[in-house]
Amino acid sequence: MKKKSILDLHRVSQEEFKHLEKIPLVVVLDNVRSLNNIGSVFRTADAFKVDCIYLCGITATPPHTDIHKTALGAEDSVDWIYESDTCTVVDKLLAAGYEVYAIEQVEGSISLTDIELDKHKRYAVVLGNEVKGVQQSVVDKCTGSIEIPQFGTKHSLNVSVTAGLVIWDFFKQLGL
């Protein structure tokens, strides 16, 4: 096997990406503090054609060197919006017809392995702070909660890893 070169990958330009049809998914970052995690979410959102990212609360915004270090330019291709209050974003998304899911360990959550998505609906997922998770006030507003099953001694994943798993699963079901 020969590794593919950058030319073999046939990547689209940032301008072409802006015009691609996106999957009906919005990612909301609720007080994510690590700039590297934010950049990583941008990069994953670019890879799987996420519609938009909301950066809320203390979540930093581009341009920033440490976001760019992991985003590698995806912060310029993926649309993003800053909003100080995550609850306000959830309210707006619900009013616009989105189903909004907190990615959190809560009573009555749906396992990521069991979620069945409808290609005719629009979705948003809320990912929380590295220590505190998604704020309870935000969880309370969401349509529901999705939990990633885990089987080891730790019961949490890095927020950027969580984003990767969730976005990939949504892309598999909603991909164009």
From TrEMBL:
This is RNA methyltransferase. One of its GO terms (biological process) is RNA processing. InterPro entries: Alpha/beta_knot_MTases, rRNA_MeTrfase_TrmH, SpoU_MeTrfase, tRNA_m1G_MTases_N. Residues 25-167 form the tRNA/rRNA methyltransferase SpoU type domain. Coiled coil: none annotated. One of its GO terms (molecular function) is RNA methyltransferase activity. GO terms for cellular component: cytosol. Keywords: Methyltransferase, Transferase. It comes from Barnesiella viscericola. SUPFAM superfamilies: alpha/beta knot. CDD domains: SpoU-like.
